[in-house]
Amino acid sequence: MRSFYRIFQIALIAIPLLAMRQDKPLRVIFFGDSITQAGVGPTGYITKMTEMLKIKNQSGQYELIGAGIGGNKVYDLYLRLEDDVLSKKPDVVFIYVGINDVWHKSSHGTGTDPDKYVKFYEALIKKMKAQNIRVIVCTPTVIGERNDNSNAQDGDLNYYSKLIREIATRNNVQLCDLRKYFGDYLAQNNPENKEKGVLTSDRVHLTDEGNKFLADRMMEALVKTN
Amino acid sequence: MRSFYRIFQIALIAIPLLAMRQDKPLRVIFFGDSITQAGVGPTGYITKMTEMLKIKNQSGQYELIGAGIGGNKVYDLYLRLEDDVLSKKPDVVFIYVGINDVWHKSSHGTGTDPDKYVKFYEALIKKMKAQNIRVIVCTPTVIGERNDNSNAQDGDLNYYSKLIREIATRNNVQLCDLRKYFGDYLAQNNPENKEKGVLTSDRVHLTDEGNKFLADRMMEALVKTN
Amino acid sequence: MRSFYRIFQIALIAIPLLAMRQDKPLRVIFFGDSITQAGVGPTGYITKMTEMLKIKNQSGQYELIGAGIGGNKVYDLYLRLEDDVLSKKPDVVFIYVGINDVWHKSSHGTGTDPDKYVKFYEALIKKMKAQNIRVIVCTPTVIGERNDNSNAQDGDLNYYSKLIREIATRNNVQLCDLRKYFGDYLAQNNPENKEKGVLTSDRVHLTDEGNKFLADRMMEALVKTN
Amino acid sequence: MRSFYRIFQIALIAIPLLAMRQDKPLRVIFFGDSITQAGVGPTGYITKMTEMLKIKNQSGQYELIGAGIGGNKVYDLYLRLEDDVLSKKPDVVFIYVGINDVWHKSSHGTGTDPDKYVKFYEALIKKMKAQNIRVIVCTPTVIGERNDNSNAQDGDLNYYSKLIREIATRNNVQLCDLRKYFGDYLAQNNPENKEKGVLTSDRVHLTDEGNKFLADRMMEALVKTN
């Protein structure tokens, strides 16, 4: 009788917990620029990740939310951090920003200085960690797909990627080293050393192959320590 | 007897009010870039304003605080708004930023797009007004002192000044139209149409004459509706 | 008998001269960028000038030749001066270049420094004058049609225009002050202060109205001292 | 008797040849930018090459002439080709230009587009070859000495170097691949991955070690097919 009561007690606590677990999937926000904005499109990387979860029968475990806006740089993310991320109480946030911070230097004269890039980036992380969010930082992919470091922005993209790797270490957050993954892939799969047409359609935005590749890398990062 | 009681009643309310007024000078923060950082130097415009108040025996009425950092653009102000302004509970804030937002486009490729400039500027104002701060917005002064609109950044400075005038109207905040004041002054006082050497030493940063001129304009704005 | 001989003598000289004048129209080359390249299109300014001559029955007096290539800056003209101008033995050359020298600073990072602009410009003039060509130099028109000096490149365009006016004086060549003409026109005819849509379709390239206006100004310059 | 006659015959031919060789050293012009302008300074690379020749007792065989001007890009070389190179009737010309073509994109907005770079470069070569000059083309060295392709301009410098290698092949002229030599050296000799202080003092201009290294590479190129 007593043990039944005990079991009953446990059940009282455990059932709602299990229910909660089932009712409340892990909320994951992808916070970024146009690539992430396109990520929720029909062939976008977030859409593909959702489909991957469905196939694995894990749809209930993750809620994937795109929060990408075209042209965004790191300080734009900071400006909309409260509205687009914190207020939504996510469990995990991927920060994937940097292409425009580098690219707009030459295309619009409005890129982001490296020291400011780091400052805003760490301000993002600090506010997310204060809300106990698991942060995953991504290095920027590519502006041009040549695989011999001869795309005009390669030097800067390599440098900003180093900064992000240092940020990850310094802030003890997970790194998803997209630039490295893309570089390795293109070294193998771009034999003609083309500027575009492999993972990107226009040197930056992703082809279907690019979205697939990105979805795989993002998924690996997401499930890694989960 | 009754009137004495009445006077006593008034005194009960008025004396603390007067005391409060004397004890608590109006706290004014100048929020900006290197020009404002230099403003608290020995010949800077904020130092000159403090001296002007002393001469007028009004030192007790105002507390002038410089919050300028070299190289700052509008989004840098936003990043340090809490720490450098809001936490200090000012009564009045001058926002004087924009030179670097325009200038760094060509000098570093890291200026600020006009739409982003407006977005961050209005975010600053919104947070200050929420704390009941009287905001005074300033148009950017000059990058080059030629008085015939032939300084390289004149087009952009004129445009960003228009944006600030619109911001002032739209947000119902006070305008201190420095660019207009500087332009009018240089039209009269730069007969050789020099690039620098009148109000600035290097096309941007202020000479003693420039700091004096700026201090006068800022003081006019400060006491205007006070 | 003697006077008849005299008349015969004069005729001997005069007839070929008259014939030559009829047989050999004044060869005019328009040397420039995309605006001039479009100038020979169906609604381009050079086409319109040819039509104007036809109406005035002066088709035989002028041969108008377009030598514009999109994206050209002053040094591009220098590189193709021999092939596209000198080898064609023109009588008159309009130099109309400068928009890209200014514009590409911010759009591509590949504009032309003012001192280099002057150097190449005067090198063009020197080589043309050595071949006895009448040179007409044009100030750059517009990048944006706002009439209050608030287009981003107005400062630079005003400055480069001043440089061209000085070049004209210093080298004693004719000036066609297009920037002034466009400015005066837009002050009257752009009441909404639009960026484009009056003389240009895209802030730079000409509408039909723009081509007509330019054709008129060019024609005035051409017939001026002729 | 016969052999004496034979020797006499040989002497008849050989003596003038030797004389000519002694009387007329090979005239070598170094055509470039500020690095080459500094090259004729007390510790410059051209000065060092002259000293190397003295030590090897070959001073009479080469006349080394610096023709570098600070800030020069490829089109500046084209503008002064006649005056500073062709008119001096050199036997050999090193073309060493490209740093500013890349660098000034971000620092002044006045770099050189790659297609224009190639066009002017090949125009230089064509005019030199027409005068039977032996042309040696050099890839640009460095803007920043980090050895992991993370200097901001590395992508562009790698690309322009590829263009020069293609130019060398296409025009059948000798290549002096300075960028490769510098890269290999820095991979070995910059263990801290510093931005400057190994071969350059300021990321671009050469230290004594840099000038020595450059002098060695230039000398190897010069004597290679001589």
Care to describe what's here?
The structure is a homotetramer of 226-residue chains. In chain A, strand 4, helix 8 (154-171) and strand 5 (174-176) form a beta-alpha-beta unit. In chain A, strands 2-1-3-4-5 form a five-stranded parallel β-sheet, with helices on both faces. Chain A has helices spanning 2-23, 34-37, 45-55, 74-79, 81-84, 99-107, 114-130, 154-171, 178-189, 208-224, and strands at 26-32, 62-68, 92-96, 134-138, 174-176. In chain A, 46% of the residues are buried. With 226 residues, chain A is α/β, with parallel strands linked by helices. Chain A binds chain B through residues 75-76, 78-79, 104-106, 108-113, 116, 119-120, 123, and chain B through 75-76, 78-79, 104-106, 108-113, 116, 119-120, 123.
What labels describe this entry?
homotetramer; about 230 residues; alpha/beta; Rossmann fold; 5-stranded parallel beta sheet; 10 helices; about 55% helix; about 10% strand; phosphatidylcholine lysophospholipase activity (chains A, B, C, D); G-D-S-L family lipolytic protein (chains A, B, C, D); SGNH_hydro (chains A, B, C, D); SGNH_hydro_sf (chains A, B, C, D); Ester_Hydrolysis_Enzymes (chains A, B, C, D)
Put the structure in a nutshell:
The structure is a homotetramer of 226-residue chains. With 226 residues, chain A is an alpha/beta fold. Chain A has ten helices and five strands; from the N terminus they run H-E-H-H-E-H-H-E-H-H-E-H-E-H-H.
